[in-house]
Known about the structure:
Layout: E1 2-4, H1 15-22, H2 38-45, H3 55-73, E2 76-79, E3 83-84, E4 88-89, E5 91-97, E6 107-109, E7 112-114, H4 116-129, E8 135-141, E9 145-152, H5 155-163, H6 176-187, E10 195-201, H7 212-221, E11 225-231, H8 240-243, H9 254-264, E12 268-271, H10 274-284, E13 290-291, E14 296-297, E15 300-302, H11 305-336
Parallel strand pairs: 5-8, 5-10, 10-11, 11-12
Antiparallel strand pairs: 1-2, 2-15, 3-14, 4-13, 6-7, 8-9
Helix pairs in contact: 3-11, 4-5, 4-10, 6-7, 7-9
Amino acid sequence: xxxxxxxxxxxxxxxxxxxxxxxxxxxxxxxxxxxxxxxxxxxxxxxxxxxxxxxxxxxxxxxxxxxxxxxxxxxxxxxxxxxxxxxxxxxxxxxxxxxxxxxxxxxxxxxxxxxxxxxxxxxxxxxxxxxxxxxxxxxxxxxxxxxxxxxxxxxxxxxxxxxxxxxxxxxxxxxxxxxxxxxxxxxxxxxxxxxxxxxxxxxxxxxxxxxxxxxxxxxxxxxxxxxxxxxxxxxxxxxxxxxxxxxxxxxxxxxxxxxxxxxxxxxxxxxxxxxxxxxxxxxxxxxxxxxxxxxxxxxxxxxxxxxxxxxxxxxxxxxxxxxxxxxxxxxxxxxxxx
Length: 338
């Protein structure tokens, strides 16, 4: 279906004539000679003078150019058939811990030992791309919590921001309460049934200004469901650091994470390996979608380039014609010189 997005542009149609009427006539500065006996001069010269075109015919090409420019400015477009947008989905925020402990290489990915954050990037990235119909956002937290990506349907960009996250970008501590508080601020204006936060951490809260359980109560009051994921291998898993006597899983505060999930109606998951983390993603995929107001969209193909190109072509032809007529008398004068 053809449509003009800005048809009110045609109100500018009389603008050139209004300006001509308001502004004073231009003075070329050349003397003008008016001859009352033009017919006698023509007979003596043996030829007739060129007959001037009527004023309306002289202005016609410029009128066409002006109409084409207005038509292009009105944004002509061809609208396709209405396509339904997703009518169900969630507002899903992901809060990922990027504190120093997430750099521990105690996880396995395709036979190689990788850090906890690298494993989260591999598996959570695919989880993000599969959230068709959901608005997905990303919070990175360490000593402070920062909104890295607001809620958006552009899942690929959210995954890119996750892939570019680095250890320590938000500080070396773990502010779980601040991350939940920031999520509450971003989700509280969304429909109550669709507010979901997935929080991933490997430690206990040792930073920030809000206690995790207090932030969880605020989230529960706003109807935000929080799913918590504790990541990190057990001491007996035999990772690189465990071989030297370090228990990298000892810092994980499972009771607090479990209490956060219970207070908000979510679930707590323990991810000790890539298989467990992948299974957690599959479980989260089973969340029931919430019906939202159905909407439709039409694909619009812009057509302004055609009238704009026609106006440019006619303008170039007018310029070429004026240059030719201006150069023609000079050419004849050069030929008559001895």
